[in-house]
DNA sequence: CCGCGGAGGTTTATCGATCAATCTGGTTCC
DNA sequence: GGAACCAGATTGATCGATAAACCTCCGCGG
């Protein structure tokens, strides 16, 4: 490993001068500077970021801590990475597999220290965990759980999304809309908030909302989604539409429907939420609530920049707008 | 920020003793140790990993550098993370968006230094880049490009996978199999190696392989895949099956086929490659080549462990076996 | 009474880079 | 001629933790 000290010896100056030359700080004559640069390239020197981090207290790195990377958050990550690079910073991802233990591990101060700022999407952390993390590092929380008022938070307009999706179904003839992944007992999270929109749409349309059509899905997993809808069919509960609270769940639903010979959208209409990249390629193309992830990423990054700059602005709770993308899985498409 | 020095002052011992007490090294009396621990908890001390990293030369962190996280690599990452944690290490992800520039940035020594080991899946790096990186940090390369013999490398049995997929199609009546995402001009990479398997299967079956059925797809992107197959249909080139060189490409193909009223598998059979999580949920379920990613992850981690342990074992080039998962998108399903 | 060994610490150096303060010759200007 | 100034360096401390070498009692055997 080549250090500044090696360069200093070879050029006959001190380490400080080398540092100044390489970082363009302080006063260094052109002659000395070019000698130093030449030797640096010759030896193949590269700065030790760990040492710099220790000394400067900055790592120019931002962490995105998320439950999983192969769905919604993976798409968000792509957008965030670009924004981070634009300000000379670097984005790394940590995945917690939605385990509270992993999440706790990820937000220990030890880990948080490594980064100038943290974007956190937690599923299992409570207010205390988040509050502790916030006091230790610039933090912006993403996601659909309620958060302490003290922390910057960006979430989606889940109720509105649920309402849009359900209203669209009702407008096109559906009368019994399953909300797959919803939950009557949850008090927060997407199972709750997107369900609220579902209920709202029924109220608006004057259609009764049957609680039997609220079908929970464990872990929002596509497998469990298919199983849950299959069970509903087996139970003989009649329905003519499915609102999947995520696109993955909607995918599971479409799979279950196909297994039972039910056609989409003729027999059952389907709407998802997240508008994932692949949703436009399903057969039929999936109508879905778009989370406007570009705006969401921009907002999150703006808030984080603000925190990192040390400004003690009041914490913001931003609700990102959503809109419905209509495609072939509903009768209007 | 609370440091060991703060604890040392409060307990009246030196920093070294604090370090020894907290890490269970050296000699510290039980009385002193418990006093130190008590003060540490009281002050809310947490070790500064950056300082430790600088001093120890270890970060207990492994990086997985990949083009994108929302497909195949996202699923690999999940498996690798578990294996890393098992040895007390931590996995972080870096995405390069398949841009050679980002990849170069990711493998500068500066970045690589941050990690004890690196798992790299590069699409645009040449031998020199990789060779340079290898000399600087424990490195294992994943992926389907040819690699210098000096570096540990895990790749898939692409030819075999392509052969399996194509043979399966030919066995079930297909005679004109499009290889979507293949390329006649590529000399390596999946466009080449999976095409080799396609050709092999034709030779084995004594069916002529029409070069007009080799249809390249830019960036292996689902959008481009759909467009490419649509163009093929418009050109009036007859075909009765599609081998998509990735599941994403197969998805694009299924979408294009549906748009033109072609039924899968009755009119056109489809096979993919990667066996992504969602592929089992498409309608019809997608027959796909499974990359055995659990084994792949285990192999990669084993090689990396070996490198990190400093053993100068000869570099291994491992070819991970694949197998065909037959589902409804082919006529046997 | 001397010397030895070990428990329980402390001292000092180190990792590599950065920063504030300081030193050293020249020049310039009045 | 001397004060003021400046370019171009250097010194020394620092970030926080760790490792190796060293010191200091204390008890104990000979």
What does this structure look like?
2 copies of one chain form a homodimer. By secondary structure, chain A is α/β, with parallel strands linked by helices. The first copy, chain A, folds into 3 domains: 4-47, 434 Repressor (Amino-terminal Domain) (Orthogonal Bundle); 58-156 and 292-320, Rossmann fold; 158-291, Response regulator (Rossmann fold). Chain A is built from 13 helices and 12 strands. Chain A has helices spanning 4-11, 15-23, 30-43, 49-56, 72-86, 100-106, 109-113, 127-136, 158-171, 190-205, 222-234, 247-259, 293-308; strands spanning 61-66, 90-95, 117-120, 139-142, 152-156, 177-180, 214-215, 241-244, 269-273, 287-290, 317-320, 323-325. In chain A, the strands form 2 sheets. The first copy, chain A, has a 6-stranded parallel beta sheet, sandwiched between helices. A 6-stranded mixed beta sheet of chain A has the order 7-6-8-9-10-12, with helices on both faces. In chain A, helix 1 packs across helix 2 (15-23), helix 9 crosses helix 10 (190-205) and helix 11 packs across helix 12 (247-259). The longest helix of chain A is centred in the middle third of the chain and has 16 residues, at 190-205. The radius of gyration of chain A is 26 Å and the shape is elongated. The model of chain A has no long low-confidence stretch (mean pLDDT 94). Chains A and B meet through helix 4, helix 5, strand 2, helix 7 and helix 12 of A and helix 4, helix 5, strand 2, helix 7 and helix 12 of B. The structure holds a DNA duplex (30 and 30 nucleotides).
């Amino acid at each position: 490993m080549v250090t500044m000290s090696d360069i200093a010896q070879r050029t006959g100056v001190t380490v400080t001068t080398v540092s100044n030359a390489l970082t363009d700080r302080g006063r260094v004559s052109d002659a000395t500077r070019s000698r130093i640069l030449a030797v640096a390239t010759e030896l193949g020197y590269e700065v030790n970021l760990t040492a710099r981090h220790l000394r400067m207290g900055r790592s120019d790195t931002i962490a995105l801590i998320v439950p999983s990377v192969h769905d919604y958050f993976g798409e968000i990550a792509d957008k965030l990475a670009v924004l981070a690079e634009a300000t000379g910073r670097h984005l790394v991802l940590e995945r917690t597999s939605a385990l509270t233990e992993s999440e706790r591990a990820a937000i220990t101060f030890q880990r948080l220290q490594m980064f100038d700022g943290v974007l956190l999407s937690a599923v299992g952390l409570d207010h205390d965990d988040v509050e502790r993390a916030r006091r230790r590092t610039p933090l912006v929380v993403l996601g659909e759980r309620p958060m302490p008022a003290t922390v910057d938070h960006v979430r989606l307009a889940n109720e509105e999304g649920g309402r849009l999706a359900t209203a669209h179904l009702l407008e096109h003839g559906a009368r019994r809309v399953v909300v797959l992944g919803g939950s009557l007992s949850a008090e927060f999270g997407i199972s709750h908030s997107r369900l609220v929109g579902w209920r709202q749409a029924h109220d608006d349309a004057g259609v009764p909302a049957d609680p039997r059509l609220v079908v929970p899905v464990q872990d929002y997993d596509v497998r469990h989604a298919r199983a849950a809808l299959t069970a509903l069919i087996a139970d003989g509960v009649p329905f003519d539409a499915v609102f999947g609270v995520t696109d993955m769940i909607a995918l599971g639903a479409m799979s279950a429907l196909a297994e039972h010979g039910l056609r989409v959208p003729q027999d059952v209409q389907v709407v998802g939420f997240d508008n994932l990249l692949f949703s436009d390629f399903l057969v039929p193309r999936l109508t879905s609530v778009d989370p406007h992830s570009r705006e969401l990423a921009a907002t999150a990054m703006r808030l984080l920049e603000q925190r990192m700059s040390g400004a003690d602005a009041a914490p913001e709770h931003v609700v990102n707008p959503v809109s419905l993308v209509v495609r072939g899985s509903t009768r209007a498409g």
